[in-house]
Amino acid sequence: MIRLEQVSKNYKTSARPALAEVSVEIDKGEFVFLIGPSGSGKSTFLRLLLREEVPTKGRVYVANFDVARMARRRVPRLRQSIGCVFQDFRLLTNKTVAENVAFALEVIGKPKHTIKKVVPEVLELVGLEGKADRMPNELSGGEQQRVAIARAFVNRPLMLLADEPTGNLDPDTSQDIMLLLERINRTGTTVLMATHDHSIVDSMRRRVVELSLGKVIRDDARGVYGVGR
Ligand SMILES: Nc1ncnc2c1ncn2[C@@H]1O[C@H](COP(=O)(O)OP(=O)(O)OP(=O)(O)O)[C@@H](O)[C@H]1O
C-alpha cells in the first residue's frame, strides 16, 4: 500500500536532510503510528506520500502510484485515494457539518443523489447524526475532529493519513477519536498516524515506526512510545 525505498529529502534551506535513506513498507489494512520528536521528519514523510514534496533520492509508492515520478496531471487521482486529518481540523467555517462533508464529494464531481445518500451515512458512522446542520463553531473540538474524519473518509479512500489528530483534544476525547480511527481501520482502510501522544501509542499496541533526525530508528510490530525511557 505504501513503500518508501531509500528515500532522502533535503530541503534547500536546511543543512541536514529531513529524511535520510528511509525505507518503510506498510501493507493494506495496517494501523501504523509514526512517532519521533519535533523536526524528526514525520510531516515530511506524510507530505511525500501526497506528492506535496518530492524526494531528493529514492522511490515512493502509494497504492499503484509511483508517486515521485508520476505525471503531475495524475496527482489528483493519487490524492483521491488518501484521506487526510490534521490537528487543527481545517473545516470550512461558513459551511454546516453536512456541507463540509458534501464539499469533499462535490469537488471530485460526485452526483448530487450520491452525495445526498452518503453524507448522512458517514455522519452516522462518526457519531454525528443529528448534528448535520450545525456550524463548526457550535461543536466541541472532538466533534469538529469527527467532522474532519467524516470528510476524509466519505470517499472511502484506501488510506487515512492523520497528522497529530488528537493534538488539540483532551485525553478522553482523544480516546474516542482513536476508537473511531480503529473502526475506520477495521473497514480495511490503512491508517498512518503521526503523533506525540505517548498514552495513545502505549494503549493501542500497534505498529510503531520511530524517526529521529530523519532516520528510522525503530519499527516495532506492537510497539509502545518509548522503549526503556
Ligand atoms: N519546507 C521546508 N523547508 C525547509 N526545511 C524544512 C521544511 N519543512 C521541514 N523542514 C525541516 O525538515 C526537518 C523535518 O521537519 P518535519 O516537519 O518533517 O518534522 P516533524 O517530525 O513533522 O516535526 P513536528 O512534529 O514539529 O511537526 C526539520 O529540520 C525541519 O526544519
Strand arrangement, major sheet: 6-7-8-3-9-10
CATH class of the largest domain: Alpha Beta
In whole angstroms, how far apart are the ends?
32 Å
Small molecules in complex:
adenosine-5'-triphosphate
What's the CATH H-level superfamily name of the largest domain? P-loop containing nucleotide triphosphate hydrolases
The main pleated sheet reads as: 6 strands, mixed
Sketch the topology as an H/E string, one letter per element. EEEHEEHEHHHEHEHEE
User: Can you count the beta strands?
Assistant: 10
Mean pLDDT across the residues is 95
The gross shape turns out to be globular
Low-confidence stretches: none
Whole-number radius of gyration? 18 Å
Strand content: 15-25%
CATH topology of the largest domain: Rossmann fold
Structural class: alpha/beta
**Helix tally?**
7
Number of domains: 2
Q: Do you know the CATH architecture of the largest domain?
A: 3-Layer(aba) Sandwich
Bin the helical content: 25-40%
Which features characterize this protein?
single chain; 229 residues; alpha/beta; Rossmann fold; 2 domains; six-stranded mixed beta sheet; four-stranded antiparallel beta sheet; 7 helices; globular; binds adenosine-5'-triphosphate
